[in-house]
Amino acid sequence: MAVFVAESLIVSLRACLARPAIARSPFQRVAAAVIVALAMFATAPDARADAAVIRKYELQKQGSGYRLVATTAPRPKAKADEVLVRVRAVSLNRRDIMVLNGTYGAGDVSGRIPLSDGAGEVIAVGERVTRFKPGDRVAGTFFTRWIEGKATPDALSSARGGDVDGMLAEAIVAHEASLVHIPEHLSFEEAATLPCAGLTAWNALFTRGKLQPGDFVLLEGTGGVSMFGLQFAVAADARAIITSSSDSKLTRARALGAHGAINYVSNPDWHLEVRELTGGTGVDHVLEVGGRDTLPKALASLAIGGHVALIGGLSGFDAQVPVGALMGRTAAVSGIYVGSRADFEAMNAFIAEHKLRPVIDRTFAFEDAAAAYEYMDSGSHFGKVVITL
Helices (H), strands (E): how many in the chain? Predict the structure, then answer.
């Protein structure tokens, strides 16, 4: 952020110097000196990248859950097939709140670095690394060992921020296979939002859902997965219908291209309006993030032959699957658990082609990580919550 401010000041001062009214004036000489100083600041190397000690957070047991603890550690070193990454930004997901509360089911995560999602810059590589070089801009994959194809038990036991260390540290080492290049037009903050929420929405709609132009897509709420679903649907010429309890959030969703927007508090029978917005046919895709409270109405909104992507359960899931409702609509149901590195790279190509920019609600400083967790847990966000390092 400081570099961005410095660069912005340079641009502004150069614009002022171009005005004839101040040419060759004392102001010009002062401004020129300021430009030189700011330019040196803006291009200065990151001192933290060379620090012998890095800052990080880890999870420590507290009651039935955990607490977030700031600490330090020696800067890690990359082994032969590893990459050392200076992490620049991380983002939060609902999963991270569940891990902190001890309700995610990842086993004992005491001492683990939290957060699955992060992006940064390669600062060193091991001698056998071929996929990256210093200076490359990268993001970590959600699963460190799911490279392509179908998931395996081993792949699914390698989730960052749960099964293995996550990204909330100034520097991490990672096997070169567990990183991807990020789209050139994205900032580190934007790229940090992609690994979990972005890829979940991508696989729900494209890999498993086979989204086609003109399809109707139902999105529940305005969290990270739903906002990515909205952006992907619009870019693919599909028609997205989104629900929220906030009229202001619905207005913002319409501005991003939503075909329909429904307040589920003022309209508790929102599934009827969904069907009306589709001309009575129903939606072709549902990104189901609500769980027990939303699934029945989501199924009532579904078209014949539609697809339901089971993603999350904010209100919990019933043990019984509504088989009759699914069979009556010849529906397909997929359980979505993020995706592989190959899926991530396919998504990045789509994002680069359409120049999509993830929706970021708020950005917190590294020192304010606990506040970022609290804000995420409040449900007030529209899109993603990011922490910069």
Answer: 13, 15
CA atoms of 93 and 231, how far apart (whole Å): 18
CATH superfamily of domain region 209-335: NAD(P)-binding Rossmann-like Domain (3.40.50.720)
- Tens of pLDDT, residue by residue over 202-214, are 999 999 999 999 9
Q: What is the pLDDT of residues 258-294, one digit of tens each?
A: 999 999 999 999 999 999 999 999 999 999 987 667 7
CATH superfamily of 48-195+359-388: Medium-chain alcohol dehydrogenases, catalytic domain (3.90.180.10)
User: Cβ atoms within 10 A of the Cβ of 65, count?
Assistant: 16
**Of 8, 15, 18, nearest to 41 (Cα)?**
8
Length of the chain in terms of residues written: 389
User: Where exactly are the structural domains of the chain?
Assistant: 2-44, 48-195+359-388, 209-335
Annotate 15-78 with DSSP letters as a single string: HHHTSGGGTTSHHHHHHHHHHHHHHHHHHS--GGGG-SEEEEEEEEEETTEEEEEEEEEEPP--
Q: CA gyration radius for the chain?
A: 23
57 token code pair = 């957070």
Q: Is 99 helix (H, G, I), strand (E, B) or coil?
A: helix
- Say whether pLDDT at 302 is over 90: yes
